[in-house]
Amino acid sequence: MDNKEVLIKKTFTRGIEEIIDGVHFWNALNSGRKLRVKLGIDPTKPDIHLGHTVPLLKLREFQELGHQAVLIIGDFTAQIGDPSGQSAERQPLTEKEIKVNMKHYLDQAGKVINIKKTEVRYNSEWHGKSLKDFLAVTKAVSISQIMKREDFQKRIDAGGDVTVLESLYAILQGYDSVMVKADVELGGADQKLNLLMGRRIQRYFKMPEQDIITMPLVEGTDGVRKMSKSYGNYIGLTEKPEEMFGKLMSIPDSLTAKYFTHFTEVEPPQGNPYEAKMLLAETVTKMYHGEKEAMKAKENWIKTFSKREMPEEIRELGIRNKELGILDLLIAAGVPSKSEARRLIAQKAVELDSKEKTDEKEVLRLNGGEILKIGKHRFFKIKL
Q1: Is 273 part of any domain?
Q2: Are residues 137 and 237 in the same domain?
Q3: Planar angle of CA 243, 247, 253, nearest 5 degrees
């Protein structure tokens, strides 16, 4: 097979959970026609982690085949919040928060896709402009169809409410596909119902229905729950090389092959699990920080963890109060929540000057210069 045939096969098979409609999509890929491939994101947070890069890497494959990538920034829909999989209504974002998040998102997405060759659109361009136009779109879907959603049913059965605004989210996202004339739409497995809505609304407007590609939600560093900042099990694209490398080395061996498949373009190697994980950490760190920084992070990890030495460079952690609760210290060090801090203490993953911390209610008396260790790879030097 020539390079193009290899890339087409890779785009059709690698890292995919489901394709709708598979036969139609395969024929479209081999037709020679330039496809418009849509990926929509709501800028709900300013930072991207590796879990967010799964559909971005797939979008890059389409770019490499010469297709048109269409990145829709949901600056309008972010004000509603995607209800998919939510047990309660999302907290709406302000326009100011959305603008800040959008800038950071595009900067980080540019580490994965070619932003200059990407058609970037904002769905505020068409949403909210005309009530008459919006009401016409709602005719494409019935209330009963919307309320059949499993996530809505679970919430209602638990005594919760589903707002009218939330029920409209999928319609708004579906209409985005009409406005950009999408041939293909990408998304996580939890987005399937929203992506199908795009097909329904395109059909209502007598347009060809987009093919859908869903990708799995990959577990975070704990190997249990999906990668999420709220779970504290994420690996951010903007993290320092040493921290990124260390987090990747800390994942369960069972995740190594999955991380190769979904976070890189390298085939999972066979053989020694330690060497495979080392290659994974080196590959991912190189993707986002370059070869020089990746090799430096690798050398630092080997020195620190294989030989049990202290890292040469330790990040300073500025603290105002000499007396501070251990939970508050962990929050200051970047642990996302007190519940996550309690979990780390319970797992015996917190040390101060090589002394294990086991009491979540402990009040520390700091002098400055202490070394805080969180997990296997995060070190901080206390500075008062």
Answers
A1: yes
A2: no
A3: 155
Residue 378: count other Cβ atoms within 10 Å of its Cβ.
21
The pLDDT tens digits along the chain (384 residues) read 578 888 899 999 999 999 999 999 999 999 999 999 999 988 877 788 999 999 999 999 999 999 999 999 988 888 775 545 444 445 667 778 888 888 888 889 999 999 999 999 998 898 877 666 666 677 677 666 666 666 556 656 666 656 666 667 888 889 999 999 999 999 998 888 889 889 989 999 999 999 999 999 999 998 888 998 778 889 999 999 999 999 999 898 999 999 999 999 999 988 888 889 999 999 999 999 999 999 999 998 888 776 556 666 788 888 888 889 999 999 998 888 888 899 899 988 898 888 889 999 999 998 888 889 888 778 888 888
Last residue within a domain, chosen from 281, 306, 331: 306
CATH value at residue 321: 3.10.290.10
Neighbour count for residue 221 (Cβ, 10 Å): 22
CA distance 48 to 46: 7
Q: What are phi and psi of 318, to 5 degrees?
A: -75, 125
- The range of the structural domain enclosing residue 27 comes to 3-215
Residue 224 resides in a domain = no
* Encoded tokens for 63: 């770019």
Residue 223 in any domain: the answer is: no
User: In sequence order, which residues have a C-beta less than 8 Å from that of residue 250 and are 6 or more positions away?
Assistant: 221, 375, 376, 377
Q: Cα(155)–Cα(106) distance, rounded to whole angstroms?
A: 33
150 and 90 in one domain? yes
Domain count, the chain: 3
Domain final residue, candidates 215, 241, 269: 215
- The span from the first CA to the last CA of the chain, in angstroms, equals 62
Matching residue, tokens 């007598």: 206
Structural domain contains residue 100: yes
Alpha-carbon distance of 4 to 64, in angstroms, equals: 9
| CA distances, 125 to each of 73, 170, 171 (Å) | 10, 17, 16
Do 179 and 55 have their domain in common? yes
Residues 190, 42 share a domain: yes
CB count, 10 Å around CB of 19?
17
